[in-house]
Design a protein that fits this description.
Order of helices and strands: EHHEEHEHHEHH
CATH superfamily of the largest domain: Ribosomal protein L11/L12, C-terminal domain
Number of strands: 5
Strand order of the largest sheet: 1-2-3
Oligomer: single chain
Number of helices: 7
Radius of gyration: 19 Å
Number of domains: 2
Distance between the termini: 38 Å
Shape: elongated
Largest sheet: 3 strands, antiparallel
CATH topology of the largest domain: Arc Repressor Mutant, subunit A
CATH class of the largest domain: Mainly Alpha
Amino acid sequence: MADDFETVSLLVDAGQAKPGGSINPTLGPLGVNIGSVLSEINEKTKGFKGMRVPVEVTVNKTNRSFTISVGLPPASALIKNELGMKKGSGLSGREVLANGTIDQFIKVAHAKRTDLLAASLKAATKEMLGTSVCLGITVEGLDPREVQKKIDNGDFDKNFTSFEKNNPY
């Protein structure tokens, strides 16, 4: 029975998946309607437009039906999108390309929470801050590592309390 299903993992441009590249040779032999698959992928990923999103297509080889599961973009992509950045720094630690707010990082951590092992929103936010170091981003005008220490000291507790009141973790 398990041999009746095949799962294919793809990384697609959200909302803009097109036939070609690795999609046709991967899905074509499974006998599914590629146009229908791409249409559903584009519909399910349109909220991540401008980012590359991991997608799994599970095909029932017996009746050619399929289901699509959309993952979350990498943390770096979510951070860059939130800050309106096209790319990160090529000179990690020496070049600052953007400055974010603690609230923006709390929002990204909340969005990424299902992919993280963090037990709390504070811990998840600290993970996102760690990612921002190599992207050339400061937070509240500070090095992200300093912001992580400030989180530990409780300096941003009101930001977390306010966000969690409206967005349960």
